[in-house]
Amino acid sequence: MSKILQNILFENVKQSTNDFTKHYHDTYTIGLTYKGVLKSYNSFETYDSYEYSIRINNPGEVHSGKSKEWSHANFYPTVDLLSNLYEQIFYEKKTPFFQRHIVENKLLFLKLHNFFTAYFTKEDEMFVESLLIEALSELILSNTIYTKEYNKIFEDRKLIKNTYELINDSLDTNFTLDALASNVNLSKYHFLRLFKKEFGLTPHAFIINQRLNKANRLIQKGVSISQASVEVGFNDQSHYTRNFKKFFGYTPLTLKKNSNFIL
């Protein structure tokens, strides 16, 4: 596998009827719908991901969805990958953010399809990487709506940024509302109200989501499900598994068997 694609999750799923609750990724989500439909909810809006449409989620963007006979391919490129390519194009290190949430662009769809096909059929490494760069550069050039300073996903939302940093510093801690609210100099009432308004998740769901994101990265690197569960602060493996299925629509065992999986 090309170094540029190491530790990047791919999905190729047929006839999904799974639903997933509100969550976010610290990577991008870029996907193609081939059949069926996904009704997704994002930033207080509803979108239908239908046949031959491109679905994009930016890092830190809260979304949920309900699928019906949904056949699709997804991958989750890192902020580093997109920022490095942006720098190669424009000679400045920025993190691009894209037109939300559904994109209709036949040329881009074809380029992403060719990349996915080459990846899943294990074509030559240089060929796959060339198709990846061609597809992502088309995405950057045609759909970037704004940029942020490199690797500062929550920089424009101080409440979220400060809470994110506190949680990440000790992810396995059993946080209290008092500690989270005091960290940003707010009462518990105002912290709860403002956090959910700004981000779309409760602080509790935010913590669970961040634990899941970290556990997923550990599993992709070969850590056992049980060990990853404990390391990020879940009570046990079953607690982690229940939340994983609720948030992402499939089980962590699927991820463990093959991080770049085909269903």
UniProtKB/TrEMBL annotation:
Query: Residue limits of the HTH araC/xylS-type domain?
Result: 161-258
Keyword hit for Coiled coil:
no
Q: Which UniProt keywords apply?
A: DNA-binding, Transcription, Transcription regulation
Q: Does the keyword Lipid biosynthesis apply?
A: no
Query: What SUPFAM superfamilies is this protein classified in?
Result: Homeodomain-like, Regulatory protein AraC
Name the record gives this protein: AraC family transcriptional regulator
Which source organism does the UniProt entry give? Arcobacter roscoffensis
